[in-house]
Every structure is written in C-alpha cells, then in structure tokens.
Amino acid sequence: MKNYRVGIIGCGNIFPMHAVSIREIDNAELVAVCDIKEDRAKKRSEEMGCKYYTDYKEMIEEEDLDVVHICTPHYLHPPMAIYAANRGINVFTEKPMSIKLEDGQAMVEAAKTNGITLGVVFQNHYNPGSILIKEMLESGELGQILAAKAIVTWDRSDEYYSKSDWKGTWAKEGGGVIIDQAIHTLDLMRWFIDDEIEYIDANIGNRGHAQIEVEDVAEGVIKYKNGIITGFFAMNYYSYDAPVEIELHCERGIARMVADEARVSLDDGREFIARPNPNETIEYGNVKSYWGTSHVKQIRQYYSALDRGVTPKIDGEYALETQKMICSIYESGKERKRIYF
C-alpha cells in the first residue's frame, strides 16, 4: 500500500472536511497546506501539525506531493488542477470543478494527458438516503422514473456576500444559487435518472439581493433523452436553510428525499426508509450541518481507487456532465431560450 503525501490549497470554511478526512485515512499524510492569507494558512498548519505556504506552486514544487486537494474559490479550480496535473500530481477538487465548461474539459484533458486521477466532490452520493434510492432504481423495484422534481430554498444574506471578495460575482463564483447551493441536488437528480440530457429550459433572476451580480433564484425544466421531464426550483433568500427536497415519481412507487433522509413508498404497500446512522460520526469541527458526514466516505473511496489503480466513482468525466448541466442552465436563463444538447 502506497503512502500518499498530500497538500491542501485553500484554508477556508470547507478545509476541515478535507483535512480531517485525510487524517482518517491510513495511507494518506497531510504534509502541507496553502492559503494566500498567511494567518489562515499558519493557523490551519498548527491545527494539523504540518507545514504551510502562501504560494501553491511553491508548495507543489517543494513538497513532492502525490495528491493535492483544492478548496479555493471556484474560478481557481481549473488553473490549480491543471498546474498540479502537469506535474504528475493527482487532484481532488471541491465542486464545482469549474465555472466555464471549456475549463472543466481542459481539466479532464490534463488528467488524461498526464495519467493522473481527477476527483470532484459530490459527497451526497454517499449518504444513506441517496444510496437507498439509487439501489432501488437499479434493482428495478421502483420501475421506470416517470417524472422528478427538486427544491432548494436556503438563506444567504447580503452580509454573507459582503464578507466575501469572490462570492456573488460571475467572474469568480460563476453564478449564485445554482452553482453554489443547488448544484448538489441537481447532480443527485441527474445521478438517479442516469441518462443523457435532451434539453434545458430555465429562468434565472435576482429578487432578494441588492449587492450581487448573480442569480438568487432559478427554476426550470430538464428533459432527458429517455423522456423523463424534471423540474427544479432554487432560491437563497428564504428565512432559513430549509431541508432540500427531491421526489421521483416512478412506475411502482414514489421515492422522496428530504435533507439526508429518504423514504421509498411502493404501490404494493412496502416502505423503505434510510437516514444517517447517529453512531456514524466524525468531528469536523464548526462546519455547516448540511455538509453531512460523507466527505470522508468519498475521500476514502478516492484514495482506495488510487491504491488499486482504478477510476474513482466520481471522477472528472462524471463531474463534467454535471458541469455541462449547470452551464446550460445559465445559458438558458441568460439568453432566455431552450438549450439542446
């Protein structure tokens, strides 16, 4: 079993989900962290007992890394991932993989050219509720999906945006409620349906925030080539972070997910429920509760795939399809037209 030397770029809010997860993996060692804000990098290095840098290129050149985790603002994911890939270093990046589709494609191409493994965070695939629904779809017990819907109604105040030098901007965040808050939910729905998209027809707007460029509300239709029509609604000017909802109406029943609990009700009267195991915990520290505990599951699977020389379940090519969906929602909303794939 190879021992992996790991570095993390970005020491902000999501950092603990990666750093603590790496600490849980027997053959991974966090040797360095990096952030352009030296006080933040130094604090995290002291917490984790490793070196710190303020220049990610310097960290990569000096530390002989095997893997780099990218936890930076969205617009920085592609250049950092490509820089690491070109030096033969495996990459595990937070979502979204990129802002622009062509940048995501360049990341995948760099990974292929250099023979490295590119992973992208979509940790909700590993939640018990997500797994229950996916397994019952794959087993055929639910039958074909007839239609689906997804709802995300969260709260992001003006203060949330004013405290950031990159959120709320097209150039750095790449969007608002869709690319930052709703992306996980839309990705799960795409994963459940497991088919190519035919078209997207969406509307986007800013109704609740005075200071931002990007959308704070979006709704639309995603039609898949197998005929399934899905609807979605997302906004981030609600009064609190309400539980995310997904519903799949199927031939033999209905699958519902509310937050990270799933309930599958079959027409024959049987019912299946999956919820997080209260005994399955990991102490990430003071982080957002809806991030769940599944980062460590995905990160563990990523390192297992590295060790076995196989593709991780959520690799760059998978994430690129979700990125295409997200980019097409924006294209449809901005140009006010249906986008065909």
Q: What proportion of the residues is helical, as a percent range?
A: 25-40%
**Main sheet record:** 9 strands, mixed
Overall structural class, as computed from helix and strand content, comes to alpha/beta
Strand content: 15-25%
Give the mean pLDDT.
Answer: 95
Radius of gyration: 20 Å
Q: How do the helices and strands follow one another from N- to C-terminus?
A: EHEHEHEHEHEHEHHEEEEEEEHHE
Number of helical segments with 4 or more residues: 10
Number of β-strand runs: 15
Q: Overall 3D geometry?
A: globular
- List low-pLDDT spans: none
Sheet with most strands: strand arrangement: 14-13-12-11-7-10-9-8-15
Question: Kindly, what is the distance between the CA atoms of the first and last residues, rounded to a whole number of angstroms?
Answer: 42 Å
